[in-house]
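Q: Hi! First time doing this. I have a protein sequence and I read that you can turn it into a structure. Is that right? Here it is:
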Amino acid sequence: MSDTGEEWQVARRRKGAARKSKSLQVSSNSACSQEHLDIGKTVKRIRDTVSELRCEDFWQEWKKAGSAALLKPPEDPEGPSKDGRTCQQLECVCYGLGSFSSCVSARFQLAMLLLLLDAGQIPLKDCSVYDPAFSSGERDVLRELGLTVLTENEEGKRLATKPTLFYLMHCGKALYNNLLWKNWSMECLPLMMIIGNGFNGMMDRTVEREFKRDYGYITQAVSVCEERQLPCPSRLVDVFSDTAVITFPTSGLNRLPQSTWAEVPEPQYQHCSDLEIIQRETQS
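A: Yes, that's right. Below is the predicted 3D structure, encoded as structure tokens:
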């Protein structure tokens, strides 16, 4: 069996694992080995995976389904320029990618990110990536690819000041909720586009009462966002399943009462026993 065939088999055997927070799956042994990565070899493996995905039928469907959003950035309050083009280039932020040097699923998700950046004409340097699980070797690989590596755990609390694609593959619900909280305004939400787990699927897999209590911003967003499911082949169900393009048209936000924007308390998650997010270390 070829290396590629073996990787598909590994991806299939990992069914269900990708739904867990990938940042929590790194053992001390694998973390140690990742510190001494062969940068050139790892970069080549990722680029080979990009080439492999580019030939897949489902990528062509992703590109077609997401082209309207990717090639037409999220709504910009400043409006289009005089020549009809948007005023600002789309940027990208990627959280929770996982340890792509040891996890096949994470490597395919990184390869998909690179394809999406190319399709959306987003410069590599304008894509910022962060995961507490990254080793120093993996951070070097990401820099070698041309991406910008963040050094601070933002917990998803990144304010979109310009049109921004957020790539959150199989991340914990708290990360999505934090991102929505930070951008919870008529000005910022339309600037956002998310490629990640669909909000409706999150709600379906959680007790409704607990979901509304703990993830109030996702709960409110479900009724006003536009969610377009992306196709996923059966052999990669644990890599790309339940992935959607999520946008926040102003027309939908206008349906919410003005009181929605008046008080925006920061999420606390006191009742969450399994938060699925690595929180920032605080000074004692």
